[in-house]
Amino acid sequence: MEDMLFQANDIGKEYPGTVALKGVDLEVRRGEVVGLVGENGAGKSTLLRIISCVEQPSSGSMEMRGEPFRGRNLLEANQSGVGMVFQEQSLMKNLSVAQNIYLGRESQFRRLGLIDWRRMNASAAEVLSSLGLDDISPARNVLELDFATRQMVEIAKVLNIVGDNEDGCLILLDEPTSVLNDAEIKKLFEKIKLITGQGNAVIFVSHRLSEVIDVSDRIYVFKDGRRTALVDRKDANEDLLYEKMVGRTTSGEYFKVKNQTEPGDEVVLEVRNLGMRGYFRDVSFRVREGEVLGICGVVGSGKEEVCSVLCGDDSPDSGRIFLGGEERRFSNPADALDTGILSVPKERREEGIIGILSVAENISLSSLKAISRHRMVSGRASVDRAEEWIRKLNIKASGPKVNVETLSGGNAQKVVFARVIAGENKVVILNHPTRGVDVGAKEEIYQLIREITGRGIGVVLLGDTLDETISLSSRLIVMKDGLVVAEMDSPKDSKPSQFDVVRYMM
Amino acid sequence: MMKNLTVRTFVDNLPWLLLVALVAVFTGINPRFVGPISLANIFMAAAPLLCLSLGATFVIVTGAIDLSVGAIVSASCVIYGLSFPSMGNWSLLAALLFGLVAGGVNGLLFTRLKIPSFIVTLAASALWRSLALIMVGGGAKGIPMELWPKLKWADWSLGVVPILFLIALAAFAIYYFVQSKTALGKSIFAVGASERAARIFGLKVNSTKFWVFVLSGVGSALAGAFYSIELKTSQATIGDPVTLLAIGSVVIGGTPLTGGKGSVWRTVLGALLVVIIQNGLNTVAVDPYWQQIVFGAFTILAVYLNSEKGGRNLIVK
């Protein structure tokens, strides 16, 4: 086909224990904007990383400009005309716009071993002007620019890097609008049109469906690493996309829904008008004993920050927290633990386990009093309890004294759970409790969560997928842009559908 | 259980092997090396070094470093000697109290201002060294000879083991107890292995860091008092060379600078090794100027052997 710029055929990507992408086909034509949508973890970002050669696919092939395309890194992708604008801005804030645009490519301005800054600035001005960005001075520090302008500079930079060979390039934009306001987004979209008008193509990823529909010519929908739909702009509407993103529900048996416990009457945790400037405000909810309260929302909805306030890692600016009816304040996780809150954190390797310490030490560190005899920490008690937990949670470790870093993801996560439950705290925060865990271990963890609530512990859950959050929770709150926008029950016999929840999230 | 002798287990057991090997070599060159006088000398020199290295071990296990141990030794030596005429043997308490305060200052500055520990303690060491010099008014001031009988107890020894070394062993027992039987001891290793995880686990990270510096200050102060007792003088420069010796004892014992691993019992081996290397070089008559080179090389080698080669644990403290 004459206008075909990029093609991906049957791309698959496997990580140990999980399949991130399976059988994905993608076509991008010259002058086109292709939108990618899907829930967190659906595989969009993985696909972008593969196209930009930051990661290698496990299977499948790609073509760029009709030639086989397989780079070993971003630099080689750039040479073939593929450039990526990253989700987290990657400009050096302490350097000027021009220095950023030519970062790593300064040698073209070298004269007698020194860099000719004037020539670099002039050249950068030309680059910016070709995108209609004449108002950005190339000599200014990136630090002084607002987010929207930085984003433009970044796009200009990427375009300049890949645009050297004039034959149409492919620009990948990963959530470029997340930090922009409406006017800035409009400006960005104008630039996107300008770029594609010059014969280039753009792949655009965003959580905001309306934007994707706005800017894209064709939209690929992803779910669980597969492409579930390809929708033309003229056929696209938000409801249709939601439906394709959500797909069919996983069976309740997988999530042990029949074991879901009935919450008691006692409120173990109550939050009133909690707020943290710039992240969320007026968040109020109650968690009763034996209840799982699921918090739904996209990345950036404020749910992660609510979670880190609850476990003491961040301090709120306003609002009150009550435990067992008593108002409590805490400024660090140690204080939170004193009041009876402990979390299974999101980043297992950095926050959940201490790899160079043993399984026994990891399990006992959050409940040192419990392993003390005559006020002295007892190594024997620690090992005995660890052996008990290894048996109870079916942790595959050769013994309580091996280092946790030698365990697989699922088993390490069970060690985290053992530590969190061992202290018999009243409230447990589960932040992505099944992240990076294989299917078998996931099921065991679901069963474990049912057992935790069976003991009257109140649980706040941020699930890895929406499906998981709905299935595990007995009640749900939905957050969007820092506010609680919906609250609903999720009893075991009539679970709300993902569609019911997603419509509030987006 | 039979285990393959991997490089790792070899390095882990190196301090023992080295201790035996060095004693054998030095004895081979000069048989008097294991004689009673030489052994008593080794224990006498090891006593203060062990005390100040014990606390330094905890600091290093948390992943920080205390460069002020030498200056605290100097100031404590001066405080002990100067207060001895009025307080007698109670001046030990004055010295230890000073160590508590000095360590507390380090701990507070480190945890409250969040300044890297090496710069806090380096700056603090200038403070304590100046204080020591000002108090003594120059180089050294002796404890009056008529008071020496009051220090007679320090000459007592159990066979070849002098009482000061026995006291140092008692200090070791206390630090070992803290390390293995208290919540603080468990926190020290957790904080050193992963500060972020330790925080999320609900451990009191700042209080842990504070107390290791206090324990380091107290250990150094005890060492300072030992020097004053042994030399019967207040010497304001006595601690200048010992900071490197203390850090050397810790790393030669096998506690890595990257934190989260190690033990005070390793430091006992390390301190003995350091003293044996020094005494051994004396016994075989190596020029004292060259001894520093040997010692520095040993320290670098020990850090190298104990470091992870993956490049994951960069030491920027």
Tally of strands of chain B: 4
Based on helices, strands and strand pairing, what is the structural class of chain B?
Answer: mainly alpha
Determine the strand fraction of chain A and express it as a percent band.
Answer: 25-35%
Distance between the termini of chain B: 39 Å
State the low-pLDDT regions of chain A, or none: none
Shape of chain A from CA axes? globular
Arrangement of strands in the largest sheet of chain A: 6-9-10-3-11-12
Rg on CA atoms of chain A, Å: 25 Å
* Oligomer category: heterodimer
Strand residue content of chain B: under 5%
Query: Mean pLDDT of chain A, as a whole number?
Result: 88
Helix-residue proportion of chain A: 25-40%
Mean pLDDT of chain B: 89
Kindly describe this structure.
The complex is a heterodimer of chains A (506) and B (317). Chain A is α/β, with parallel strands linked by helices and 506 residues long. Helix content of chain A is 33%, strand content 26%. Chain A is built from 17 helices and 24 strands. A six-stranded mixed sheet of chain A has the order 6-9-10-3-11-12, with helices on both faces. A six-stranded mixed sheet of chain A has the order 18-21-22-15-23-24, with helices on both faces. In chain A, β16 and β17 (326-328) form a beta hairpin. In chain A, α8 crosses α17. The radius of gyration of chain A is 25 Å and the shape is globular. Chain A starts with a strand and ends with a helix. Chain B is mostly helical and 317 residues long. Chain B is built from twelve helices and four strands. Chain B has a two-stranded antiparallel sheet. A two-stranded antiparallel ribbon of chain B has the order 2-3. The N and C termini of chain B lie far apart (39 Å). Residues 310-317 of chain B have low confidence and may be disordered. Chain A binds chain B through residues 311-313, 332-334, 336-338, 342-343, 345, 350-357, 361, 364-366, 368-369, 372, 376-379, 419, and chain B through 180-183, 185-187, 189-190, 193-194, 196-205, 260-261.
